[in-house]
Write a structure and sequence with these properties.
Length: about 550
């Protein structure tokens, strides 16, 4: 059979990619800290439901494929004993609040049934987390990897926005090589691919990815459609760069089905309303025991209302009807992808490809019914294997050895598509400070890499590298650019660069305060094997 005939007869490939990431937030100096709730909410609403759905598919012998990026900062937090303990305290608070809600709503039947459901959910979540997983979720994801159903990949070490870094080969190398090493430490094997933070691509990054042993990465749609030269079939085939690393482009139709504010599935009126939370709805004194020390209102994870159509009052949420709608939307998504693949299959000389990448936290946290949608989609796709084939990126590359060659267009996802979210008049002040520190660390890494510094100097250099990596996180620029939690994000950048400067000054003056150094190492304790030499020039 010719390649063209095989392309027209084989089912098309659907590659579903989830990117799980949160910035590193850990504050041992406080007994409770508001921003740590980002992690706790994501565990409850996204990571545990996703694990449960995927494990159920494996137990039911449903053949599926999925790529899942777990960022190194998220992996570090999921594996941290302090945060594991605090998550259980968080769940105990939610269980207690839900129990009080069961009592408070006893004369309001629709809300009473929902309160009882939340009480069951929180208790079951605690039981699964503490007993089934022993507080450690990374081994559970690793076990899914071992089944062959899930391909685990990585991201930049701290999700730094690569195109906006200075001294780029060195700083790119640090973000990428540290990420690969951490992934191998957590999951027992190096990753085959990497999710570029914010899909931020600039030419030359692919060479560092090749150097790190990676086979592929992801870019936004126009990174492929404006490539030099663009592949004939645009995002429906991978683009092999001159380094040999392949670029996959996001399918815009698949993205719109989920992300579109007007037409996306999460906006259906039957789904749970994210913004109506008891933390803002109920009397303050009743809620005060469940709020953080400053007493500011915040979401508490109990949401009684659905999105609801029109301009009238919100209607009570119905778990069952929302689940039915999620199944219908999974079928709709699959049928549209099947039609598109059938259309492409008649014209292409190779199996057509649809890449559907999403932030994992959309599913469950922002879109409460999202994990149901994913499970239904994977089950239905398995029954339609003659028309659509679920693949991982590695599998598709293995099946299509002949690929178009070119370089993606420098690009990002997000508003404007060219880094506008991470470089604007609100956050542009960040980069001169980061560039100064990046240049200084490269200089020091080159100087000390040629010698054998004493252990305190080695530790100070590596901790300085750790602080710089944390300051580079794209999350801080995003938060500042969007105007949310600006004080916290600004404070994080200033704190990491302040510690960086203190360590560099102490190193150059040969007066390292080992007590202060130990405090920094305890506070920012991720990447235990980090070596500052990763910032040095390659000879």
């Amino acid at each position: 059979m010719t390649a063209a005939a095989e392309g027209r007869s084989a089912p098309g490939d659907l590659c579903l990619v989830l990117h799980a990431h949160l910035p590193f937030v850990r504050h041992p100096e406080h007994p409770r800290f508001l921003e740590e709730d980002w992690l706790f909410e994501a565990i409850t609403e996204t990571y545990l439901p996703l694990l449960e759905a995927l494990e159920r598919l494996v137990d039911d012998c449903v053949p599926f494929r999925l790529a899942l990026s777990i960022s190194p900062t998220l992996a570090a937090m999921l594996d941290d004993p302090l945060l594991q303990d605090r998550y259980l305290v968080h769940l105990d608070d939610r269980i207690d609040l839900a129990a009080r809600e069961v009592s408070r709503t006893r004369l309001i039947p629709p809300l009473h049934a929902l309160a009882r459901s939340y009480h069951r959910i929180f208790r079951r979540t605690r039981r699964r987390y503490a007993e089934r997983y022993g507080r450690r979720l990374l081994p559970a994801f690793r076990a899914l990897q071992e089944t062959g159903a899930v391909e685990l990949i990585t991201c930049g070490a701290t999700h730094g926005f690569l195109p906006l870094m200075s001294r780029r080969p060195n700083t790119w190398r640090a973000q990428i090589h540290v990420a690969v090493a951490e992934h191998a430490r957590h999951f027992g094997r190096p990753p085959s691919g990497l999710w570029l933070p914010e899909c931020g691509y600039d030419r030359g990054i692919e060479e560092i990815l090749h150097e790190a042993g990676l086979r592929y990465f992801f870019v936004e749609t126009h990174g492929i459609t404006r490539a030099s030269p663009p592949p004939r079939w645009e995002v429906h085939e991978p683009l092999r760069t001159p380094s040999g690393v392949a670029a996959f482009g996001r399918d815009p139709d698949s993205a719109a089905s989920v992300w579109s504010a007007r037409d996306g599935y999460p906006g259906d009126p039957r789904y749970r309303e994210f913004y109506r939370d008891v933390g803002f709805d109920l009397e303050y004194g009743y809620l005060r025991p469940y709020l953080h020390g400053d007493g500011a209102r915040t979401g508490l994870g109990i949401k009684y209302y659905r999105i609801t159509g029109g301009h009238g009052p919100k209607q009570p949420y119905d778990f069952g009807r929302a689940a039915e709608r999620a199944a219908m939307h999974a079928e709709d998504f699959l049928e549209k992808r099947k039609r598109r693949l059938a259309e492409l299959r008649g014209r292409m000389d190779r199996p057509p490809l649809i890449v559907a990448p999403y932030d994992a936290e959309l599913f469950g946290h922002w879109w409460f019914e999202g994990p149901i949608w994913i499970e239904e989609l994977l089950r239905r796709a398995a029954r339609d294997a003659d028309a659509i084939r679920l693949v991982t990126p590695s599998e598709h590359l293995g099946r299509t050895p002949e690929q178009a060659t070119g370089l993606p267009c420098p690009s990002s996802w997000g508003r404007g598509g060219f880094a506008e979210v991470w470089l604007n008049d609100r956050n542009d002040w960040i980069y001169p400070h980061l560039h100064r520190a990046e240049g200084r660390l490269v200089e020091l890494a080159n100087r000390f890499a040629r010698s054998a510094p004493a252990p305190p100097a080695e530790r100070a250099l590596s901790q300085a590298a750790r602080e710089l990596l944390l300051a580079q996180s794209s999350d801080w620029a995003f938060i500042i650019g969007m105007g949310t939690m600006v004080d916290y994000a600004t404070g994080r950048i200033e704190a990491h660069l302040g510690r960086f400067d203190m360590l560099v000054r102490a190193l150059l003056e040969e007066r390292i305060d080992e007590r202060a150094l130990s405090e920094f190492e305890e506070k920012d304790n991720l990447f235990p094997s980090l070596d500052y030499r990763v910032f040095a020039d390659r000879i």
